[in-house]
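To fix ideas, we give here one paired sequence and structure record:
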Amino acid sequence: MDSLEIDDNVSGFENLTMTRLITPDFQRSQTPRSAVVCLGLLCAVLLAGNIGQIVNYELKIRPVLADLNQVHRHTPQQAQHFLQNDTLNKEKDQLKTNLDALVTRLNNLTKEKDQLLTSYKTLAKEKEDLESVHLALTTERNEFKASVNNLTDEKDQLKESYNILKQTSDQLQMSYDALQADHNVLTESKDELQNNYATLQTEKDELQTRLSSVEAHRNQLRLLLSNYTALRREKDRLQRQFDYLNLRRDLLETSYSSLFKAKDRLQYDLTNTQRRNQQLQTSRDQLQKMVNEMEAKIRGMNCQMGWRKFGMSCYFTSGSKKNWTESRKACIAEGSDLVIINTGDEQAFVNSLLNSGENAWIGLTDSLTEGEWKWVDGTPVTTAYWQPGQPNNKFVEQDCGEIVQNSPVGDWNDDGCFADQKWICEK
């Protein structure tokens, strides 16, 4: 009977262990409450540090960022002037110092988070051990209940036997007394079992309280993790803004330097251009004087026999007929080329070299690019005298131009370069 009594000393725990009321796992699961108290204090310190860091950001860093944003909204000239003053340099240094402090604080928070995670894992393991102990105690309690029920049944049977034995013989009176003694023992055992049940119920309530405390610590850890994530995002945002401002400053400095160099280069080019313009003006006057003298000499010169003079050029009308390519070769052999018509007077003169209804090749072709008519010297046509509806490329490969004598001025027409007809040379 003494082995079933519960005491606070060691021998009491040994007796409970031997009777399987308290298992060795339950003894090992007893954790000092001081660890839980320390963990709560640590969480409170971390929360206070986070609040202080947010207050520091609102009082120091946000005004600096507002000033930097104001700098960014200035024009490039105002921003350059603003960045050069001493106040911005001091604020930039203060910002760097604050950023370094934030980085240090972030590293400390990372270490504290790892310590909290380790403590959380330890508490989770202890929770699992307590749940195992609770399950074992519940099983043993059920076994004790079954044992009490069995003993109650046995007691009823003994009562029935006692009645039978009392009726049958007085000789069984001794046995009846022994059964009565056993009944008293069972009653005492039942009382002890009820006391043990009450003790287990109390321990269960304590375990439930500890479980609630663990849940509260876990919620605090989640809150700390959320605050850490927010601080990390804020740090990244500040870093991006800091990098952008540095890049903007470098770009402004580079732009200012480039503009200053470009101004010097343009000033130098302007001076050289003005000097060259003056030199070209002098050269042009000299060349114009030489051209005038040459034109006077050319006008006084006569063309060779068979050639007719107009302006400063000599013109030759063939008596035979050839295709456009051979006609040009014939002109080149004479030191000339097929005629190029630049003015209306020249058009009327060339037209007068032909008899009424005659055609003759001129130095006009679109053989290189269809529809893009050019003279034999490569210059494009500026003034044209095409017949109505011409050029039409009516027949395939009409890539050469001819003049048709059908009016006082004459008209142009496109024709196949393979056709044989007269030609007119100019030199």
About this structure: Residues 308-426 form a domain with the Mannose-Binding Protein A; Chain A fold (CATH 3.10.100.10). Residues 119 and 220 are 13 Å apart (CA to CA). The first strand starts at residue 308 and ends at 310.
